[in-house]
Design goal:
The protein is mainly beta. The chain contains no helices and 11 strands.
Length: 117
């Protein structure tokens, strides 16, 4: 059974930092492309950052220069370091694992990030 569990969300003031972590279990983590998505109230879910199985990264324009995605295959984790947070970053953040060639896709339950003064 595949499981993705996010942690690290919470309340932070504008300009602050937060680090999200996603722990994976019971699948071949290193073979998956990993991503962070977010969904704000009234908006559709959007891609925030991604890191492929080959460690290639890409970011949404809205977070470039502020967020950093990383992965540790030895620990089966993917992290999202978020700096210079803005109120518009407020959303539920979801971890995603994708293996296109195997048509496999998994989601975590999400963790709430609230940026407010």
């Amino acid at each position: 059974q595949v499981q993705l569990v996010e942690s690290g969300g919470g309340l932070v003031q504008p300009g602050g930092s937060l680090r999200l972590s996603c722990s994976a279990s019971k699948f071949t983590f290193s073979s998956y492309d990993m991503s962070w998505y977010r969904q704000a109230p009234g908006k559709q879910r959007e891609l925030v950052a991604a890191i492929t199985s080959g460690f290639i990264t890409n970011y949404s324009d809205s977070v470039k220069g502020r967020f950093t995605i990383s992965r540790d295959n030895a620990k089966n984790t993917v992290a999202l370091q978020m700096n210079s947070l803005k109120p518009e970053d407020t959303a539920v953040y979801y971890c995603n694992a994708d293996r296109p060639r195997a048509a496999a896709n998994f989601w975590g339950q999400g963790t709430q990030v609230t940026v407010s003064s």
